[in-house]
Amino acid sequence: MTDRPDTPAVRWPPVSVVMPVLNEERHLRDAVTQVLDQDYPGLLEIVVAIAPCKDRTEEIAREIVATDSRVRLIANPAGLTPSGLNAAIKEAAYDVIVRVDGHGILSPGYIRRAVEVLLETGADNVGGVMAAEGESAFEEAAARAYTSPLGLGGGRFHVGGQAGPVDSVYLGVFRRETLDRLGGFDETFERAQDWELNYRIRQAGGTVWFTPDLRVTYRPRSSLATLVRQFYLTGKWRRAIGRLHPGTFNVRYLAPPTAVVGCAAGLLLGLAGLAAGVPLLLVGFVVPAVYVLGVVAGSLVFGRDMSWRAKAWLPVVVATMHMSWGLGFLLSPRTLAG
Fold first, then answer.
1. Beta-bridge mates of residue 45
2. Distance CA 93, CA 124 (A)
3. Distance from C-alpha of 283 to C-alpha of 273, rounded to nearest angstrom
4. Which residues pair with 210 in a beta bridge?
5. Which residues pair with 19 in a beta bridge?
6. What is the CA radius of gyration of the chain?
7. Is residue 254 within a helix (H) or strand (E), and if so which, with residue range?
8. Domains of the chain and CATH, by start
9. What distance lies between CA 96 and its chain's CA centroid?
């Protein structure tokens, strides 16, 4: 499949955008508007799967539906992302499925370029850069941590890179036939379900393709508490995927739990040395000290162009991401998704 849709022999395929949402009153209208303004040459619809919300998300969604017939609203009573995605895909009318989250803002021309790449490469899933952008100082720091090797380890869909096959991508533009053949998203996985699906795509002989041409503005969590919860749960579920699919971990995934164990062991050893009056054991303090100095030094390098408030938050945010993810990974119960 190398023909482009703008050649005489090929039509632009119709596209279904699926959007699972939960408590997205702050960003939903912008996210939907950016999809509707894509100027895609083919037919386009949006299926919004709405979970039980504690804010005005559903009210806003109904207002959007009332003003544009291309948008449909369906219920996601389970409230989980994979169940919302599967419900929306089931209701979708078309064979190209574009995933968008309620806090994701597509760049202009995103869908058109994604369809071109899908056809040019023959891939089963195409995705691009998760371009995190914050509004407050805390969010600015979280965004920088997302998009630098210091925070999330430098995966291509976080920091960019050359186009080509990858393990996973952010969100994704799928062939519906692939989703149908593989059974869609595994609803067992409350988090990391995209990574798990992309693993199954690759195991079935398919291709997951990254291109830096595609960018989605991502709005990071707005408080330390919500960031802790996000990364703790992600670490917990990422380990569950590793149990289901052995051999899928690499150094980047194992670094946070290693840091947690090393810092905790060093701190306990040093405290034991203080309590027992054994100076030799005080060497344990070196491990957490080196970690903290490394995070601070890295934050000074990667945050040098940020506002001073964001610079102050950056080492806190980075350490929170590492420690929360690592702790979730280490405490992930064997019964999870078992």
1. 16
2. 18
3. 9
4. 127, 164
5. 48
6. 22
7. helix 251-276
8. 15-220 (3.90.550.10), 223-338 (no CATH)
9. 20
| Cα–Cα distance for residue pair 208/262, rounded to 1 Å | 35
Asked if residues 100 and 210 have their Cβ atoms less than 8 Å apart, the reply is no
30 alpha-carbon distance from chain centroid: 19
CA distance 194 to 208: 11
Q: Which amino acid is at 67?
A: T
Phi, psi torsion values for 114, nearest 5 degrees: -65, -40
CA 202/CA 124 separation, integer angstroms = 9
Is the torsion defined by CA of 313, 318, 323, 329 positive or negative? positive
Q: What are phi and psi of 85, to 5 degrees?
A: -65, -45
Element (H, E) at 208: strand 208-218
Q: Which residue has the tokens 């291109």?
A: 211
C-alpha 318/C-alpha 224 separation (Å) is 11
Query: Which position has the token pair 């919302």?
Result: 84
- Give the C-alpha separation, 338 to 78, whole Å: 19
pLDDT tens column, 9-58: 458 999 999 999 999 998 899 999 999 999 899 999 999 999 999 999 99
Sequence length of the chain is: 338
pLDDT in tens, 240-282: 888 888 767 777 788 999 999 999 999 999 999 999 999 999 9
- Tell me if 113 sits within 8 A of 4, measured CB to CB: no
- Residue carrying structure tokens 């051999």: 247
Give the pLDDT band (50/70/90) at residue 162: confident
H-run or E-run covering 15: strand 15-21
